[in-house]
Amino acid sequence: MMWSYRAIKNPVARKKWLSFVSILVFIGFLYSLYRVLLGESVIKILLIFTLFSLFIFLYAIISLGKPRFYLMDDEMILYKPFKTRLSEVEGFEVDEKNLRIRLKKRGFGVKTLYFEKIEDLKNVERWLKKKFGSQ
């Protein structure tokens, strides 16, 4: 089973990416303020901060619109570069309002499955229930 989502269409993923970008811009602002307090030229620092912010916002636009793909087979969930073996998953929680499924597992790997469409969420939920019902 394969599906894709874009972070801009999923409320939780969008919030996560926007928080990350906000933190990066805030760190850039603090660093710029620190350099101004050290006595460097304000115009030079503002220009550097503006260019840094521009690149961060372009990165955010590209990241939010980029399609991401999940692939599930009988043994694994793949979300490049992460892999999760279904044998390591103890269960799952479905959040239809936020279009996501949280996998209960320990360690590294895919822990949250995001969706753009409710139909994809329902299909994966059915597939997971069937898979965990047989174990």
Automatic annotation (TrEMBL):
The keyword Transmembrane applies. Keywords: Membrane, Transmembrane, Transmembrane helix. It comes from the Archaea. The chain crosses the membrane at residues 20-37, 43-62. This is DUF5673 domain-containing protein. It comes from Archaeoglobus fulgidus.
